[in-house]
Specification:
With about 325 residues, the chain is of the alpha/beta class. Helices cover about 50% and strands about 10% of the residues. The protein is globular, with a radius of gyration of 19 Å. Belongs to the NAD-dependent glycerol-3-phosphate dehydrogenase family.
Length: about 325
């Protein structure tokens, strides 16, 4: 394999992409951060700050922004893909001619593609034609704002090429950000895709006035259905018991910084889906992921009642109260 030494491109200047560019620079790499809006790239280069997505966080000199994907990707041996899950295919199609032959591509998106039901690593390999061992996935309990402020966090870098994963681990390790490696790409991706849906359910229950017992039950039963799906797809159950599974689930379900939890809270307080979208102002991955995750589960005959309830609220107009009644009314059974 090619080493990950050399230029690093981070494609996407949202909060997470910007935070990881900062991590890379503070770990000693030179990171080129691509922003869809050239004005944002100019702001980052001029003020050393991304006021739109990470206000008040100074960015080191090792982060250079550009609005030109060719400038970001030319010569890059490592590419971090920080665009939303449902936009990944279109973006990667445009960028493929610019990629180096033995590039290492790292997916930061958490979702299942609508229609194809592909995981993000599958989208990348199918579009670019790169080998599966060139694609890694980074996932874990990683709230961007906390990491940008150097609060201690851990993550998982999953890749079928363990040497490539270790090279990425060295590239991203700092005193406050600790990457672990894993070869279970499927489990790492399923944990990341499904946790957003369960976080919506946790937010809905909180918005409806439910307490910590309810939240604990949702997180625990959510983990059970995520694990069922992951194992059906060939993932390891222990991956979903680790940082990329239960770790990410707990952070996303409990933090007020979580967009998915906050969106669910609005729905639980009776706000309509369109109004909640307008209030949020940013993409909420779980709203789209619940549809593709549920379809993927159905194709493997895996039961996911919490995901089904979230889907009905977000896409079929079911009220949160009625969704909770349906869940409570399910037949009793052994755990």
């Amino acid at each position: 394999m090619a080493e990950t030494d050399g230029a690093v491109a981070v494609m996407g200047a949202g909060a997470w992409g910007t935070a990881l560019a900062k991590v890379l620079a503070e770990a000693g790499a030179e990171a080129v951060l691509w922003a869809r809006d050239p004005r944002l790239a100019d702001e980052i280069n001029t003020t050393r700050c991304n006021s739109r997505y990470l206000p008040g966080v100074p960015l080191p000199a090792g982060v250079r922004a550009t609005g030109d994907p060719a400038e970001a990707l030319t010569g890059a041996t490592t590419v971090l893909l920080g665009v939303p899950a449902q936009a990944l295919r279109d973006n990667v199609q445009r960028w493929t001619p610019l990629l180096a032959p033995d590039v290492t591509m790292v997916s930061l998106a958490k979702g299942i593609e609508l229609g194809t039901l592909m995981r993000m690593s599958q989208v990348i390999t199918s579009v670019t034609g790169v080998a599966a061992e060139q694609v890694a996935v980074l996932s874990g309990p990683n709230l961007a704002n906390e990491i940008a402020h150097r609060q201690m966090a851990a993550t998982v870098i999953a890749c079928s090429d363990s040497a490539r994963a270790v090279a990425l681990q060295r590239m991203l390790a700092t005193g406050y950000f600790r990457p672990y490696t894993n070869t279970d790409v499927t489990g790492t991706e399923i944990g990341g895709a499904c946790k957003n849906v369960i976080a919506l359910a946790c937010g809905m229950s909180a918005g409806a006035g439910m307490g910590e017992n309810t939240a604990a039950a949702i997180i625990t039963r959510g983990l059970a259905e995520i694990t069922r799906l992951g194992v059906a797809l060939g993932a390891k159950a222990e991956t979903l018991a680790g940082l990329a599974g239960v770790g990410d689930l707990v952070a996303t379900c409990t933090s007020p910084q979580s967009r998915n939890r906050s969106f669910g809270e609005r729905l639980g307080r009776g706000t309509g889906i369109d109004e909640a979208r307008a209030q949020t102002g940013t993409l909420v991955e779980g709203v789209m992921s619940c549809e593709s995750v549920l379809a993927l589960a159905a194709s493997y005959d895996v039961e996911m009642p919490l995901t089904d309830a979230v889907y009905r609220v977000c896409h079929q107009g079911l009220s949160v109260d009625d969704a909770m009644a349906l869940l409570l009314g399910r037949r009793t059974k052994p755990e």
